[in-house]
Amino acid sequence: MTTTVPPRHDLAHEPLRDPGDTGGLHRVLSHRYLLRLMVRREIKARYVGSKFGLAWSYINPTVRFFTFYFVFGIILQRGNIPHFAIHLFAGMVIVHFFTESFNAGTRSIMANKAVVSKMPVPREMFPVASMLVSLYHTGPQLVVLVIACLATGSFAPDLVGLGAAVLAFVIVLLLGTAMGVMFSAINVLFRDLTRIVQTLTQMLPFSVPMMYPYTLVADRFREFPTLHHLYLFNPLTECVLLIQRAFWWTTIGPSEVADANRDGPVFNPDVAANFPDHLWQRSFAMLGFALLFLLFAQWVFRRLDDRIPERL
Amino acid sequence: MVTSIEVDNVSKTFSRHYTRTLQQIMVAKAKRKKTRDTFDALKDVSFTVEQGEAIGLMGLNGSGKSTLLKCIMGVMRPDEGTVRVRGRASGLIATGAGFHPQMTGTENIYMNAAILGMTAAETEAKFDDIAAFADVGEFLDTPVGNYSSGMFSRLGFAVAVNVDCDIFIADEVLAVGDQPFKKKCMKKMEEVRDSGVTLFYVSHSAGSVRKMCERVIVLEKGEVGFDGKAGAGIRYLKYDEDEDNDSANANDI
């Protein structure tokens, strides 16, 4: 029954090392196998025992989309913004990805107490895994979004839009990881944080132009350029605008414009009117910021890391 | 001989009151009571272990055994001093860690083995051994949440004792599992010891320490109280007085 382990006495050539020196985001990469298992476990665990399984990942966003469509497209009659439901849903996909990475990441170390307090794995792995799980669940939402776009009949995707979507996802991926990494460690030492994060993430959807159009922001803040700048300093604002450039903007054809403007000019079909100036420059600046912020988050994590096991 | 573990002047201090609300802290301050209170879990602990040695780590509850093991595992870092090890440390320390009640036995074996530091290929190679050792039969494809508590812990032990490592740490009294399973575990640990792996065995049972280890380290309130031959260590702890009824359970852990 037992095939004995080939003895590993031959350790003379191996150096003595510090067993606690395991952390760091770069080390997460060397634990890819464990990371993959953890992500797979979380994905499977979410729908285990349910009859529809992964179908729920499609049902939920579909229902959400139809709710938006019903409320904003039919009841509120936001006729002056064509395809407002897509405008909102596109933003929702990216904001959701961020808030999920952030929320689940913040809880991740506490949730994996049993492992964290017993085995020396790079502890950054847990928030990273949470981010990857969130990314995975974004897939079905994107599928629903694309189907909704195709259903408009006027969807004309372009390469610029594709680039915008990719850029938005990269920025949110970096930011979500950074927030998850930083707050997962702080959360162990300061448990109130989970609640604070929940409150913050509830505010987030209102702070980006998806439930209202960007044109409204530009209009209201015309007299207050500082506020306008502050509004655009939120990296998620750029990400939402990028994703809208990719999916919502490309569904607006001449007939949509004519339809919106049939009772007078309410919708300006000009890119410059619907998106802020220098959107691309701003977005690349945000990409740089997100990278720096990830490094900062890693630095914070490293400083707190040693105190995590004793505080669990 | 090759040094396997080197613990050098290690100290670790914990604070006693971590989770207090602001209100409690304010009240304590107003009453001029201490708001901070620390205790030394480990005080200036030093020793060296050669590759292949079998060490029994003994001491009363709260004497710092688990903290020391966590420092050796690398989960905790000492406040002062250094710990250095050679090779991979693993063992009966995180049995069942990462087990998800709704995943099957097989899935949990892979997960737990990965947490213990094994690669996919290593787990693959050892899978049959692990499954045979756990002896849960057809339940391997059943979610572990449906296991009896004995089966659950058997599965955890099965993975842990089959981990391929250079330093084997056993920090859990085999209080679970039935008598035949306990015997099987002891036999397996002896096998591990005899294969040249450094064994670090924590136990309160004089009998099993005597059987497993030639050297005993006794911790007393965070300090090394004794470090030497197993028999002398057990006498030092005055555990041998109980050995009469201990020997009745000689096969016990």
From TrEMBL, chain A:
Membrane topology designation: Multi-pass membrane protein
Signal sequence, start to end: none
One term under GO cellular component: plasma membrane
Organism superkingdom: Bacteria
Domain ABC transmembrane type-2: 52-304
Disordered, as annotated region: 1-23
Chief localization: membrane
Biased composition (Basic and acidic residues): 7-20
GO molecular function, one term: ABC-type transporter activity
Subcellular location: Cell inner membrane; Cell membrane
A Gene Ontology BP annotation from the UniProt entry: lipopolysaccharide transport
Membrane-spanning intervals of the chain: 54-75, 81-99, 128-156, 162-190, 284-301
Keyword annotations: Cell inner membrane, Cell membrane, Membrane, Transmembrane, Transmembrane helix, Transport
Protein name, as recorded: Transport permease protein
TrEMBL record, chain B:
Transmembrane segments: none
GO cellular component terms, semicolon-separated: membrane
Family: Belongs to the ABC transporter superfamily.
Superkingdom of the organism of origin: Bacteria
Molecular function via GO: ABC-type transporter activity; ATP binding; ATP hydrolysis activity
Full protein name: ATP-binding cassette domain-containing protein
The entry's keywords: ATP-binding, Nucleotide-binding, Transport
InterPro entries: AAA+_ATPase (IPR003593), ABC_transporter-like_ATP-bd (IPR003439), ABC_transporter-like_CS (IPR017871), ABC_transpr_TagH-like (IPR015860), Bact_Polysacc_Export_ATP-bd (IPR050683), P-loop_NTPase (IPR027417)
Pfam family, one: ABC_tran
Boundaries of every ABC transporter domain copy: 5-246
